[in-house]
Design goal:
- The protein contains six helices and 19 strands.
- The chain is mainly β and 324 residues long.
- The radius of gyration is 21 Å and the shape is elongated.
- The protein starts with 8 loop residues before the first strand and ends with a strand.
- Bound molecules: 2-acetamido-2-deoxy-beta-D-glucopyranose.
- The site of 2-acetamido-2-deoxy-beta-D-glucopyranose has 5 residues, from loops.
- The site of 2-acetamido-2-deoxy-beta-D-glucopyranose (NAG) has 5 residues, from loops.
């Protein structure tokens, strides 16, 4: 293989063999090409639930050396197994939403536990990566953002569509471990478990919240970033406590390095109420009564001028990460 593409990154893939006496975790290294597809070489085409199931099919088949996986809006995707002969023809095409993955076995394992670690191992393109969970052989497909803020790498840990604000995964505080589609990252209904949040936090220094990332990316409007040492969402339990933000912006009202008030308890999700004149950040002009920002939405306490809650289709996105 001599694929001369800049978009080469490493990832680890695994298979688990069960035997009567013990379990062996067999791992392989792969090169993942996001938004690429190898044309005209598949010897077998199947439908699998997720990229992990597709890599299992490839690893289980001795003739398979790589595969294309088509990420679709559904959880099912086309999985095309490719052999060495086809692979050597090297006809890679750009195709959005696809992933081309070359399997290569190796003992020299490098297993990223967060997107920041994936960056440190050479990952540069934003997209889906296999990230190790709490145990050796547990891998999850996760979304990594390396491009919205130069110098930072972010792992998406939760995302909620505003239209899903009645759903318990959006209401349940970070203090509780609630999962939603934790194997299939998406913008509307996604939340990883608390144990996995801790794993990712271990190699992260900061967290951030973005509003409608798929549409706006990061332009620092309706955005916040804070260091875990100043506010750790997984542990935070307080009512209107002033916590230092790196930066916070609500509807254009912003400050850098100031404190803002935060609320979370074992019943209520982490929220900043922008009508409350607390801490250095204070009240945001034009706030409605109990206006909730960055989560903790209920029926009438939201503002359509805030991007996270401007329409039923707006999304609020939570990330853990750090400087590269
Ligand atoms: C931050 O505040 C300044 C002045 O108060 C404003 O001009 C700017 O547009 C705000 N930035 C964002 C991204 O909203």
């Amino acid at each position: 293989m001599q694929l001369k593409l800049a978009k080469i990154i490493l990832s680890a893939i695994f298979i688990l063999f069960h035997s009567s006496r013990s379990e062996f975790c067999h791992e392989a290294h792969g090169l993942i090409y996001n938004d690429q597809i190898l044309i005209g070489g598949n010897y077998k085409s199947i439908i699998t639930r997720g990229i992990l199931a597709c890599s299992h099919k490839c690893l289980a088949d001795p003739t398979c050396t790589s595969y294309n996986y088509e990420r679709s809006t559904e959880s099912q995707g086309a999985c095309e197994l490719i052999n060495e002969e086809a692979e050597s023809k090297e006809v890679l095409r750009e195709r959005k939403g696809n992933i081309f993955n070359v399997i290569s076995f190796s003992n020299n394992l490098r297993k990223p536990r967060s997107c920041l670690q994936a960056w440190n191992q050479g990952a540069r393109t934003s997209g889906f990566y296999l990230i190790q969970g709490r145990t050796e052989c547990l891998f999850y497909e996760m979304y990594c953002d390396f491009s919205s803020e130069p110098g930072w790498a972010w792992t998406l840990v939760m995302s909620q569509g505003f239209g899903n604000r009645g759903n318990s995964f959006t209401k349940s505080p970070f203090l509780k471990g609630v999962l939603k589609n934790q194997r299939t990252p998406n913008w509307e209904k996604y939340r990883i478990g608390k144990g996995r949040m801790w794993v990712i936090k271990e190699s992260s220094s900061h967290w951030r919240v973005t509003c409608d990332f798929p549409n706006f990316g990061v332009d620092f409007r309706d955005y916040l970033r804070a260091a875990f040492q100043n506010l750790n969402p997984i542990k935070f339990e307080a009512s209107g406590k002033c916590c230092k933000m790196d930066y916070i912006d609500i509807r254009g009202h912003n400050c850098t390095g100031c404190t803002a008030a935060w609320w979370q308890n074992d019943q209520r999700f982490l929220t900043h109420f922008s009508d409350q004149d607390e801490c250095q950040f204070g009240k945001t002009p034009g706030s409605g009564a109990n206006e909730a920002n960055f989560g903790g939405y209920w029926k009438s306490n939201t503002n359509i001028a805030f991007r996270c809650s401007s329409s039923e289709r707006s999304t609020t996105n939570y990330w853990f990460g750090g400087r590269v």
